[in-house]
Design brief:
Elements lengths: L2 H13 L1 H62 L24 H14 L3 H98 L22 H22 L2 H5 L6 H23 L3 E2 L2 E2 L1
Antiparallel strand pairs: 1-2
Helix pairs in contact: 1-4, 2-3, 2-4, 2-5, 4-5, 4-7, 5-7
């Protein structure tokens, strides 16, 4: 041990240097804990973000392919029966950016520690210049400040961990909402393909058969015949179910386009996700089911066979 180290060791008891070193060690431990715990929390959050983004990618892919194809096909059918606007280009749902380590916070902690972690040389020269009594006053004042600083470091760690865990829980909830939304959009697509389009084929065939029959009865040629679909003439006739079906199919198409055209999920999650958002998606699904029920009520086909 050199003379400087020996002298510094002798005065540390009387000047409060031993407590200062213990406080510095505690601050360093908190700094290390900050990096470890925050890194773990960020990894957990980013794992949840990756799951959410995978769900969003799947959702965007389904909307761009299957859903678009079925909605566009429904439009081609419905425009023969009345005014019908084509769906717009679908709006992509937004993915989340991964969380980054708060390096600025870490640097701030390390800079603070560097400022209070005096070397043996600094302790000796401070004692030499200030006298032991002056050094005692300076060190105790420093220790008081450090105790407050360590308390702030602990609060910063707790606050950062709480914020990250809250984000992770929010992202988990958002993924549940995304799953509910995926159920809605897939139901819409499947209902169009399996329920509406086959029935519209039947309605088309009905009008075509009627017009061909009328021409044959009048002994007119069917060459160059262009079919028309005056759906409202069926009101009050035994075939009014066809009219009601097409009418309800229009309603379902409008609802489908609203889901397809608009980034409903992104708009919903523009703020902090809540259980109310999950309920809102559930309410939307209820509305879809009700509309589908109205369509089903006037269907004549069941699994491709007339009922």
């Amino acid at each position: 041990m050199g003379i400087i180290d020996w002298l510094a060791d002798k005065v540390q008891e009387s000047t409060g240097e031993k407590e200062r070193r213990a406080l510095v060690a505690k601050a360093k431990s908190l700094c290390s804990l900050f990096r470890t715990r925050v890194t773990e929390a960020i990894d957990a959050l980013n794992e949840q973000i990756n799951k959410f983004n995978n769900s969003i990618q799947k959702l965007n892919s389904v909307r761009a392919s299957t859903v678009k194809e079925n909605i566009d096909t429904l439009f081609l059918f419905l425009r023969k029966y009345g005014n019908c606007k084509t769906s717009r280009e679908y709006a992509l749902e937004s993915e989340k950016l991964p969380e980054q380590f708060p390096q600025r916070e870490q640097d701030s902690i390390e800079n603070y520690i560097a400022g209070v972690d005096w070397s043996s040389d600094e302790v000796f020269w401070n004692t030499f210049l200030c006298t032991p009594l002056g050094m005692r006053f300076k060190t105790r004042k420093q220790n008081l400040s450090m105790r407050e600083g360590i308390n702030n470091l602990q609060l910063k760690l707790d606050k950062t961990l709480l914020e990250l865990e809250t984000k992770r829980q929010d992202t988990e909830l958002e993924q549940q909402i995304c799953g509910k939304y995926m159920e809605c959009i897939c139901f819409i697509s499947d209902f169009i393909k399996d329920k509406i389009l086959p029935e519209l084929d039947l309605v088309d065939a009905f009008f075509q058969a009627q017009q061909i029959k009328d021409l044959l009865i009048c002994r007119q040629s069917t060459d160059g015949l262009q079919f028309s679909y005056p759906i409202t003439v069926l009101i009050g006739t035994p075939y009014e179910k066809h009219y009601q079906f097409v009418r309800n199919a229009f309603f379902f198409y409008i609802l489908s386009c609203a889901f397809y055209d608009t980034p409903v999920l992104t708009n919903l999650l523009a703020h902090k996700a809540t259980q109310e958002d999950l309920q809102e998606i559930s309410d939307e699904r209820t509305m879809i089911d009700q509309c589908a029920g109205m369509v089903e009520k006037n269907r004549l086909l069941n699994n491709g066979k007339q009922v």
